[in-house]
Structure formats: structure tokens, C-alpha cells
Amino acid sequence: MSFNDTLVIETKGLEKSFGNVKVLQGVDLSVKQNSIFGFLGPNGAGKTTTMKILLGLIRPTGGSGSIFGRDIVQESVAIRERIGYLPQQPRFIEYMSARENLEFTAAFFYTGPKSKIRMRCDEMLELVGLTDKAERPIRTFSGGEKQRLGIALAQVNYPDLLILDEPASALDPLGRQEVLEIMQRLRKHTSIFYSTHILDDVQRVSDSVAILNHGKVVASGPIELILNGQGSIIYCMTIKGEPEGLGEKLANLSWVTQTSVSQHNGSSLWQISVNDEVEAETNLLRYVLADEMITVTEFNRKKYELEEVFMEVIKGDGNGR
């Protein structure tokens, strides 16, 4: 995945209170152009409130934010002209067909010949795989088909930013896969900021993520960094043979902070924590292989599942206890 360094969304110290209740507490976000940004958090974390502020539906009580370099409070109308939005539960005119829904929505954005509107609607129907269902009334659509149509409606005005609220939460695995594939195709044309609680989906398609808990960002960054443990560097090795005294030898290395070992099917599985990635990449395997009595069958840096990271940072957040 690749994207440039231009920021589409940037917030600094964003706050929102309802009466005496602080919903957002100093939220900092940076979303790059043509990226897919996953916005995560447990129920009640403040995700929907953040999205409403970005959309100009409510005002923040503190901090600042910009979209396309424009102030989210002072220039909200100009920002919204360039945004497409899909709510968690999109609504349609059920007796109308998919094409009619699209043409009705597109008419708010386009002036000129109807052929141009129809051409754009045809593009969107093809994008979301609904060309063969274009004339069917929406009341006959499955949940996945409705969600795909919702994305087409959000995209019909050529937005520079798509904000999607739980775009695949109510779908079966096939429907989720279809939505994820559409999002990946759209990244060439727009930037995508979406909230979800399906962590596996985030790990599959996102460039960057932010995890919100009790109104605070408790982890954020490129997905590769998040899955590498955000600074916790662990190398895993599978060794055959008798690594006598290996633990003691590793403990004497200044850049090794901890080791653990377990046995499985005649092999020993080692996890070695280090504080110097360059030193470990250069010398750890060489150091182990200096013992001619052992064979290393696997060697890699530990990759975390997003669910592991999510649970760790949520439970580790002081306000989450």
C-alpha cells in the first residue's frame, strides 16, 4: 500500500463535552491522502461523536481540526461539498430501484444533461457490482447489496474523502469481503476514514489506525507499527538440537532484555525481547548459529494480531480500568 504525506484530516487536542460529561479528551488524528484509516474503539469510546464533528453536525468544545486544510468549524460547508458519508444504517427510498436512488441523489450535485448523471450512476453501479441489479427495487435487496449501494451513493459526487460509519458491521463474511474490496478499489480516487469494531477487517485493508478509549487516543500509527507491538521488539526462533546454556548466553547480551522458551514436538520455541532492532537483525541469528549443535528452522520478528494490540491498549489505559 502506498500513499503520499498530504494530510486530509488533522485534529489537535479535539474536545467535546455534553454538560459535565467529557466525551472527547484531546483527540489528535492525522489521516493521509489516498489512505484507508481505521478508527477503532469500544462502544461509547467517542467514535461517532468524532465523526459528527468532522462532518460539521456538532461543534467541538475545545481543540481544533482541519479537513483539506480548511477549518472544520469555520469552513464546514465548503468541506462537506467534498465529502461522501455512509451512516451505520443507511436509508433508501425502498420502492425505487438502485438506479433511481442513485439518480435522485446525483441530481443534488450535478446540473446539465441527464445523460451525464446517468453515466455517473452507471459508473457507480459497476464499481459496487450492482449493474445487473440496477432496476430492482431496494426492498428486494439483501443487507450486503444495500451496503454496497450506500457506498455508491456516498461516492456519487466524486468526494475527496469518504467517511464510513461501521460499513460492514451487519454483514455476513461474503458481504464484508465485498465491501472491503470496494474500499480497496476506491483508495485510488479518494481517502477513506471509517469506524468499525471488526478488527480482522481493519488488519486486512487499513494503512493506519487510531484506537479510541474513553474519549482519548490510546494508540495510533501505521498498521505495520501497530502490529509490531509499538516499540515492543520480539524475535521468535524455532530450534532443533540441544541449545545448552543459550538462555544464559543471550542474557549476557546488552541488547537482549528478556527470553522465554517452550517445547513443542521435539523443538524449542524461543521468544527473545530486544531493545535494539538493528543489533538484533544483524547479530541475533549469527550468535545463535555459532553453536554447531543446534539448527534454527524458523526465525522472524513477532507480528501481533490487531485484536491482541487492541485488548492490550484498552486494558492498559488507566481510564479503562
Features of the shown structure:
321 residues; alpha/beta; Rossmann fold; Alpha-Beta Plaits; six-stranded mixed sheet; four-stranded antiparallel sheet; 11 helices; elongated
Give your account of this protein's structure.
- By secondary structure, this protein is α/β, with parallel strands linked by helices.
- Among the domains are: 7-82 and 159-227, 3-Layer(aba) Sandwich (Rossmann fold), CATH 3.40.50; 233-302, ACT domain (Alpha-Beta Plaits).
- The chain is 33% helix and 31% strand.
- It contains eleven helices and 14 strands.
- The strands form three sheets. It has a six-stranded mixed β-sheet, with helices on both faces. Strands 2-1-4-5 form a four-stranded antiparallel β-sheet. It has a four-stranded antiparallel β-sheet with strand order 12-13-11-14.
- Helix 5 (143-155) runs parallel beside helix 6 (173-186).
- The two termini are 36 Å apart.
- The model has no long low-confidence stretch (mean pLDDT 87).
Question: What is the CA-CA span between the terminal residues?
Answer: 36 Å
- From the spread of the alpha carbons, the general shape counts as elongated
Number of DSSP strand runs: 14
Order of secondary-structure elements: EEEHEEHEHHHEHEHEEHEHEEHEH
